[in-house]
Amino acid sequence: MSVAQGPTPSFPQVDLPGLSQSEVDERTAAGQVNVSEDHSSRTLGQIIRSNVFTLFNGIILAAMIVVLATGQWRDAVFGVVIIINTGIGVATELKAKRTLDKLSILVASDYYAHRGGRNVSVPHDSLVVGDLLWVRSGDQVPADTRIVKTWGLELDESMLTGESRTVRKSEGEQAYSGSTAVSGLALTEVSAVGTSSYAAKLTAQAKVYKKTHSDLNEGINTILKAMTVVVVPLCILLVWTQMRTVGGFQEAMTTGAWRGAVVSAVAGVVGMIPEGLVLLTSLNFALAAIRLARQNTLVQELESVETLARVDALNLDKTGTITDGGIVYDSLTVLGEDQGLQAPPMGRQQELEQALVDVAQEENPNATGSAILQGLSSYRLSDQVGERVPFSSARKWSAVAWKEGPSWYFGAPEVLLASQKGEYPLVEAAVRALADQGLRVLMLASRESGAQEPTPSLEDSGLPQDLRPAALITCSESIREDAEPTLTWFREQGVRCRIISGDNPATVAAIAGKVKLTGDRPPKAMDARELPSDTAQLARVLEDVDVLGRVLPDQKKAIVQALHLGGRTVAMTGDGVNDSLALKEADLGIAMGNAAPATKAVAQVVLVDSKFSHLPDVVARGRQVMANMERVAGLFLVKTVYSALISLGVVLTAIPFPYLPRHITYIGALTIGMPAFFLALAPNTRRYKPGFLKRVVAFALPGGIATALVVLAMAWSLPPAMGWSLSIPSDLSQLRTVCAIVLFAMGILVLARVAQPLNSWRGVLVALFAAAGVIGAFISLVARFFAIVIPSGRSAAATLVGLIVGCAAMALSVGFLPKYLDKVLKL
């Protein structure tokens, strides 16, 4: 073990020897040392495997390899989507892994331990169980310890418990790792280190990788699984059918016609897979994340953008979300002769406010003093100030003596009146009433001149026995300006908001009332210590609770689980380590920019500038993504439906496939892929409702069925009507050209239906892509690559008939099928 060198600070003398070097070495060898694991639960190899070896990639890759084996590389361009989609997924999860690997609640630094009768500087990860550890003001407690001896130690445990006030520790009490010493000094004995410490246990739970649930991805995967069941046997049947159309297996292998047969079979398979939808989903999530980043909102998991649209329960941490962590001066209330609250005599208010400023005007005022000086900024330090006793957390009061006049004492009422308890019942009642309003109550007391003046000695912590209460001063937590309008927005959007805090329930309820958490209705508050442990009972209790105080970290997680049991989609905000488990359990964890590193690491969304007012924009962006993706998902699924039905018709009637893979690539790009990209970026604030897959299927079936029937009708009727022999390549090419044109027209009709209303830029969008498809057919390079032939003569007439029939079929299917499909889907 290496011990840091340097000047040792002065510590009080203690009669405890501490561990010897041999005891330290023995415990280090036994693993009782303050070292925690620093890796997340997923390795680089696991991330790559989970994104590369997916069902979608497997289907597309297999189809691409088969096409490439035929030598028809132009028909294999659909495989590029694998590389793009896999790259987006791997990059996103690698970013999440790096964040998780950096996760640490404890800040590694050197500490002073009392070993072998002397004080030595020891690195954070060299502390062992049983060490006597000095905890000084400003130190972060590096391991769980028990207080052996204290010299006024006060800890800030807000990052662990959510309690915003400091906690004074007594001998024998526990000091948990991750808390911070704000004042005083203590000698402690290390009781738990490394993975056994409180902070390490929180970190370990937070580091467990959890994939964000996505209704959209789940719906797509359901479609892919269904297609897998259909694709494999259908692909085999398609190959067999296409071989028969070119004279059988032997003839096909001899003449090389097997290549065309295989490519035709792949055309049916590829058409059934909504490969563009998978890619567009990833890209749309990424674009939404980029847009939110411009508003100082960092999205750490792309799928969480979708979750934003589904949120209907929002759990808010008070400190850092509703309040900014600071305090503000509210008022000074004069106490009358009978010590009741009453209107002061002329000039008395100003006299007491001046005295308050004089007491607070220290060289380095604390947060309360700074708030008073800011609130009474019109006052300046008077020339009456004589001796001063500055505030200390050990003494809990401060004082000044005016050169001519009384001495003024400032502190908590229970401290200043400790020796006169019960002598001022009206004052005590007033203090309780103000505290019940969520206010921090302090007292200004006086002692007339001529009595013993306050001494500046820091060793003297005694108070005079004859102090007389003069005024009550109230301070409150500084509420964010954007809190009330933001909560109003959520309330109007039907999102149930609750404030969950480690503070006193009355205090939290008072703040909730100020920001109108529940509108005009007073918020219902409850002490979390009274909550049932059973999740089902807890879910019922939460329905009638708006504010919860004294909440422990595990309870925050349990609250989220109870809301899930009630079918809620839960978002949780927080900034402390105590919030990290709940943030991870929630459907959407939102951390403030000034949050603890552990909290930001597990959150899906980080409000970089800690502005609560960004949340409506965040939710609105999520709703835009989900509503638009539902719209375009229907567009992609139409292709899946008609491809499956056309493939089935080809198998049953043993005809050549009516188009090539490159045809479906061209048609899909102009009627689905590229238009969907623009439609997915359109403004849309519709709140998401469960049932994504059911609605998408209900939309896709009418258009898909109509398209399949029209194309199959053309493939069945044209050869005998036109005198085409499908064994002749030129005749088969003409049939495929006519069917491809009809298929393109049907695709434009479906696009027009998706893009409604058309009396805006949406109509222009549909017209542009329709024109692009027609113009592309007249460009020789495009026409050759995609095997497009302009119909002429009787082929043109057949194409015109097909277009008319297609329009009629689409109108009929859209008009009549949905009502029957709706009844079937409900069953």
Care to describe what's here?
By secondary structure, the protein is of the alpha/beta class. It has five domains: about 110 residues, Calcium-transporting ATPase, cytoplasmic transduction domain A (Distorted Sandwich); about 60 residues; about 280 residues, Up-down Bundle (Calcium-transporting ATPase, transmembrane domain), CATH 1.20.1110; about 160 residues, Rossmann fold; about 150 residues, Calcium-transporting ATPase, cytoplasmic domain N. The chain is built from 28 helices and 21 strands. It has an eight-stranded mixed β-sheet, sandwiched between helices. The radius of gyration is 37 Å and the shape is elongated. It starts with 20 loop residues before the first helix and ends with a helix. Its main location: membrane. It is an enzyme of class 3 (hydrolase). This is Cation-transporting ATPase. It is a multi-pass membrane protein.
Total DSSP E strands: 21
Pick out the low-confidence regions: 1-6, 103-108, 451-461
The major beta sheet can be summarized as: 8 strands, mixed
Just name the CATH architecture of the largest domain. Up-down Bundle
Bulk shape: elongated
Structural Rg? 37 Å
Please, what is the CATH homologous superfamily of the largest domain?
Calcium-transporting ATPase, transmembrane domain
**What name does CATH use for the topology of the largest domain?**
Calcium-transporting ATPase, transmembrane domain
Strand order of the largest sheet: 8-21-20-19-9-16-18-17
| Structure classification | alpha/beta
Termini gap: 71 Å
Number of helical segments? 28
Total count of domains: 5
- The percent range for helix content is 40-55%
Average pLDDT taken over every residue: 80
Please write the CATH class name of the largest domain: Mainly Alpha
Beta content comes to: 15-25%
Organism: Bifidobacterium actinocoloniiforme DSM 22766
Membrane topology: Multi-pass membrane protein
Domain P-type ATPase A: 114-205
GO molecular function: ATP binding; ATP hydrolysis activity
